[in-house]
Amino acid sequence: MTRVPRLTASLVALGLGLVAAGCAGNDPLAAGEPGEVDTTLTIGSQGFAESDILAYVYGLVLADHGYEVDYQLGIGAREIFIPALRDGSIDLIADYSGNLLRAADPDATASTPEDVSAALPQALEPLGLAVLDVAPAEDADALVVTAEFAERHGLTSIGDLAPIAGELTIGSNTEFETRSYGRPGLADVYGVEGWTFLPIDDFGGPATLDALRTGRIQVADIFTTNPALQDGDLVVLDDPERLIAAQNIVPLLSEALLTDDLAGVLNPVSAQLTTADLTALNAVAAGPDKPSPEHIARDWLVENDLLEH
Question: ABC-type glycine betaine transport system substrate-binding domain: which residues (predicted)?
Fold first, then answer.
């Protein structure tokens, strides 16, 4: 039976855009000229600190095992890097399991780490993509309010937002509004409807935090490994219905590049990567010294005996 790729409209449009741009010769992610043989693995990142660090975590280990490695940092969201993987502009990127599953199969309902991990290979096969082992480390989207706002309105879970939804402004990256855990899911699962959306494209970073703490927004989508969540002035709202699926770190690559050797190099890295590690790495990145992502990744790899040279 012929398999038909299951891409969302935005992925199809962006994929076509990348191909067209490559033909025009002005795509910064474009592959080499026809006939060229490129033996370098290009590792991508999504354009925020954690993603940059993970690119080097996997890339440095590959280089240590004799692979030629290049980096294409700051590509952007999944709607861009999935087409880039499919056309060979990049070869591997660290992604987040639940959101990846929903991008590949919008009808997917898996939400636990185990179920999401089990569903991924089949969902990705029609796209010509594959994943390596899923890491224990998880960095999920979370809906966050200030502690003062939570106390004033008696908020502990996402569903508690429903009675005041019409008064809320939610801040997040642009794509949040239409994702399964954005406007559609909030309405269907928790009855949270009528809120205003403010796009803030820094992946829950300083601009989002400032907007939340100053009251420009009342709810923010912030990643759970953001060290700011440890400060005590913010509250992560519970998600008892698992609207937001498990988001474990997983290396995503073209199926054509998947080999036993590559898996043997990178799976042990993922096996040692924990949520506590991710949070600590992000704290170092946000600290006053501002070390490079490569430096942060190398230090973690050395501490965990994952670099041989």
Answer: 40-301
